Amino acid sequence: MNLRLVLTVLAKELRETLRDRRTLFMMIVIPTLLYPGLMVVLEQMTLFGQRRLSEKPAAVAVRGADPALAAFLRRDTAIRLLPAESASVAAVRRRHAEAAIVVGASPTPLAASVPAAGGGTDSVRVLYDPSYERSQRAHDVAAQALRAWNDSLLARRLSARGLPADFARPLALADSSVATAQETGAYALGRFLPVLLILMTLLGAFYPAIDLAAGEKERGTLETLLTAPVPAGEIVAGKFAAVALIGMAAAAANLLSMLLTFQSGVFKFAKAAHVQFTLPWSTALLVLVGLVPLAVLFSALFLGIAVRSQSFKEAQNALTPVQLASTLPILVTMLPGIEFNAALAAVPVVGIAMMFRELMGGSARLVPSLVAFGTTILYAGLALHFAARAFGREDVLFGGGASTVAAGGWRGRMRAWRAGPRRVPLPAEAFVFVAGIALLYFHAGAALQARFGERGLLYSEWGLLFVPAIALALIGPFDARRTLALRWPTARGLAGALLVALGGIPLGWALGWAQVQALHLEMPREMVGALQKLVTASDLPRFLWLLLLVAVTPAFCEEAVFRGVLFQSLAREQRMWRTVALTALVFGAFHLSGETAIRFLPTAWIGVLMGIVVWRTRSIFASMLMHFVNNGMAVVVVSLPALRGLVLSDLGEPNWLLVAAAPLALAAGLWLLPPHTPLPDDVVAEPDSREAAEEAGRVEEVR
Amino acid sequence: MIEFDRLSKRYGDLLAVRELSLTVPGGEVYALLGANGAGKTTALRCLATLLRPTSGAARIAGFDAAREPLEVRRRLGFLAASMGLYQRLTARELLRYFARLNGMEDEVAAPRVEEMVRAFGLGEFADRLCGKLSTGQRQRVSIARAVVHDPPALVLDEPTLGLDVLSSESIFRFIAEARERGRAVIFSTHQMSEVELLADRVGIIAGGRLVAEGTVGGIVAGAGEQNLARAFLRIVREAA
């Protein structure tokens, strides 16, 4: 790589970006003005609100109180007593009274004349509306007054019996925090600062990435740039470095501004609560170091997506969901009880956010921190690869070249869609289809299952998965047999698929068990119970019904969607691993809705195996067999306790002998599978020639 | 100097360029004439290394645009209708940027940029941001940018599109000067007057194919028409 060229591109991009008011606004103006301004405004607003709340006495109605209590309350200047008629739920709800004190009948009522000497307890209820601020305050004021009255009554009772005042107070409780004000502040900072910092890094990289990629395309300058004798790699590196630096600078400016704001003492609440917001320079430096791979990740990801868009607006639309998807997971850091372990550290963005939380809290464990740092660098590298590839592709830089826009509204578009015959759906069409039926399954399927129980599951699988998949293949401008891979496998292929399933299933169990151990996860007991009940057969008819429901039905319905429509659409580009992995990921994700996150890995694993088998046999029937065996085995194992003991322990630990033998079956199955054979009208990709594949893909599309 | 050798380019079902073959030696101006969508831009983009030909080759000075793109780009000055100017760079900064991208060291780039500023009369606005320049000024900066590295071949894709007469005139002058300096120039257009004024030879492209080639006079005579516009219409209709 020619560093001089990279630096030339970088310097130019930085120069241009720094002359862009929008970026400067995001980088400098927002952090330097927003935080001090926001803090002051927030504090003033809060103080103003509190003053407004406390400047008028709370309107409290009282019913059933003895005259002494009523007199006591009347003397309290924070309370304005309302008549007893207003001491009702309806009055408080209508806000005629802000709160109401209702003194109920006591088993041993207090005599009005001898309150101090009498005994017993009167029940007192304070009615209030927590959705109304003045009512909340009235509740607090009333409760405080009642506590004071309670204390004075108690003191008089004790005195009447000649007992000392501390007789009824054997323990004098007092909280004493051992944390210093700085430590408390650091803990609080660690809860929200990482979220803010990551958000600002992300926002800092957002506009420059769009401007340097899609914006440059829209203005026609990218075409000129690409005719200069500079390899695409140097251009990407320069642009990416500029975006990453801007993202980091934005984050650093935000960090600095926030710290200075906190340390300026303007935040009086913190002082009052004995909290000091401060961050040692060493921690700030470590945080900045952690921001580097994160900024790299965001920059490369945004750049790679933005360059695939034809205009600034299109890039904004494409990046907004990515931005949301990157932001939401970091909210995990604000949740209580989340522990920073190696598994969580490997989750993109979340790992670094958790590391920041720990660092700001005073100490970050070394191993998870290294995992977070290392995996983020890995993800950043992958994202960079994704961005670099886009710059070298003409279809990305100049569009498809033959796109047509259908006129005439939805009907026209529908006609145009059907007029372009292709053997299988385009990947975008397949993804839209799967997303649509996943949503349908999530909402309508849940409703069906709630209403009809097990039969609802049957209806939703056939009605919401199978029927739409078949309808798409038949109604769309596709070859239905190709779209659904309706091709009989050879006996050898079928035997291979069976062996792959038999080898893969115990490995899937082991994977699930290892995952639970590594992440210290536990399946909710109710869920385990419900799942076991679902697949446990007590008699033969029930066993057959369960096989139909749990094994046969998903084998047909889910396979039609996943190894049919989705897999075949992705397979048109003839890239096996991408096709297999993407389908397996979507297949795994689909199973998140009904069960738990624990199911993702084992399901995706089976998805990978089924993908390989379909790739090699080109037959959906092979994966249907595997799906049936996988799910059917669960019914068989759970229904037959004797067999279950041989396969899984009570704690779900797999029989390790079976697991050890599984790779042999898997290898034998893979060996038996036929090699992937292109069909006569397949796209044939030359090695290292993606463009040829794409060109051929377009030719195929036209046939 | 510039050579297309049976070059074809396909976009899906559309064969944008079919078996295009032509050569433009140094000191010659070649006009690629065609209607919208005829394949002119696709052919020139293949030559400028922006697109990969589906088959055949485009070469500059013997270097293949698909296999040796960097060598081709070193010898190529590319100018498109969009001008390709960075709005937030000054004209001088832009020229310096492209000089550096073309491999010039600072001590070489600086005097070369000043030379361009003088040659194209950019002095008055050389330190103004490109986004603030008038169309004519932008056009001059754009031309200076295309030749800052003194390329022997020029590829101009509809260079006068959207320009007024005065701005177009500066392009005409630039092309004429390039010919005098021995550069090979190929430009695409659908303006007959430009072709008559500038081109030594003309290639008419229709449906991606080169359907006629020769001097302006030769094409007009060959079609049996009175002027290039009529000849063009006849040739294109017959080719359809």
Please describe the structure with a list of short key phrases separated by commas or semicolons.
heterodimer, A: 703 residues, mainly alpha, four-stranded mixed sheet, 28 helices, 4 strands, 69% helix, globular, B: 240 residues, alpha/beta, six-stranded mixed sheet, four-stranded antiparallel sheet, 9 helices, 10 strands
Strand order of the largest sheet of chain B: 6-7-8-3-9-10
Q: What is the string of helix and strand elements of chain B? A: EEEHEEHEHHHEHEHEEHH
Rg from alpha-carbon coordinates of chain A: 34 Å
Query: In terms of per-residue confidence, which ranges of chain B show pLDDT below 50 for 5 or more consecutive residues?
Result: none
Protein chain pair with the most extensive contact, residues per chain: A-B, 33 and 38 residues
Individual helix count of chain A: 28
Structural class of chain A: mainly alpha
Sum up the overall morphology of chain B in one term: globular
Strand segment count of chain B: 10
Shape of chain A: globular
Portion of residues in beta strands of chain A equals: under 5%
What is the residue-averaged pLDDT of chain B? 88
Question: What is the overall pLDDT average of chain A?
Answer: 81
Major β-sheet annotation of chain B: 6 strands, mixed
> Count of helical segments of chain B?
9
The low-confidence parts of chain A are 106-114, 400-407, 683-703
